Amino acid sequence: MSNVAIRNLQIQLGGNKVIESLDLDVKAGEFVVLLGPSGCGKSTLLHSIAGLIDTSGGQIEIGGRDMTWADPKDRGIALVFQSYALYPTMNVEANMSFGLRISGTPKAEIARRVTRASDMLQLGPLLKRKPANLSGGQRQRVAIGRAIVREADVMLFDEPLSNLDAKLRTELRRELKQLHQQLGATMIYVTHDQVEAMTLAQRMAVMKGGVVQQFDTPDVIYNRPANLFVATFLGSPGMNLFRGTLEQQDGRAIFSNAHMTLDVSGYAFQQPLTGKRECVLGVRPEDVAIGHGDGALRANVSLIEAMGAHRVVWLDFHGVQLAGIVQQALPIESGASIDFSLRTGRISLFDGASEQRL
Length: 358
Known about the structure:
Layout: E1 4-13, E2 16-26, E3 31-35, H1 42-50, E4 57-62, E5 65-66, E6 77-80, H2 92-102, H3 107-120, H4 136-148, E7 154-158, H5 166-183, E8 186-191, H6 194-200, E9 203-208, E10 211-216, H7 218-223, H8 228-233, E11 240-249, E12 252-256, E13 261-263, E14 277-283, E15 288-290, E16 298-306, E17 311-317, E18 320-326, E19 337-342, E20 348-351
Parallel strand pairs: 3-8, 3-9, 6-7, 7-8
Antiparallel strand pairs: 1-2, 1-4, 4-5, 9-10, 11-12, 11-14, 12-13, 14-20, 15-19, 16-17, 16-19, 17-18
Helix pairs in contact: 2-3, 2-4, 3-4
């Protein structure tokens, strides 16, 4: 196992600054996910760790050694691509062992590693098949197996599940999590899929415009987002937002706008609240209690989405679309007027100008 330390990383491609002054510390044996929208720099960051992209400045350390300018083969890493990148004329066994054979690894050692990897990934019956005779999920397992046989200290994954259907993605997510537990290797995984990130990561770095917005556990990032971008990027449906003002009144912290007044004194402010300021209040759909309230907050039901185990109820609250999640069999119909309340102990508050968490 090796740690990965990135210091003041700068990457410029075609005259454009893709990443500027980025720092990231991945612990040895940790599963870290790089999450963000397309074009945010997450794949560029991964490829720079792999040595496929030259840096413009900064330092990349792997296992305590400076690897900024080392060749990819000398970095002790294995990379799994989105597109499988299998050799079509070779069978599964040959694809998995190709790199080892090229490097002169003894045949007995190759056989041991291929057997171990194929057992982990349930590829034993497929070893003599060629990629054309495999499903998409099986091909991706082979690509992962090819990385495993290298027994690298650091494994890099570049959106490896994005070409698979939803059912296969779910299955392979579970297998990757179990694989990490078995191998104990350091894994860095790139995705734009928040479900993948939340289920796989021990810690995840949410990126925007080449900058890490927040780097923490999925639980902390979901429940205590560092800024408005992180808050709205995670969650399905997304976080509900209300703009208003925040001020102290008789020793209490009060959020208010034209349609609501809420006592938010129980909120864990990062700094003492002073004066009056513009503010954005965010609340997750699961923290909107529909059918509960004292009548102070009331809205019209505009849409109901049945999701199997729960329903997403969309409310029209004075022109603002508000999503709530209902678990119980509450009789609700579209067009009805209904009370709701917000669980103020679960809200997030952001500065109206900087959009940073208060």
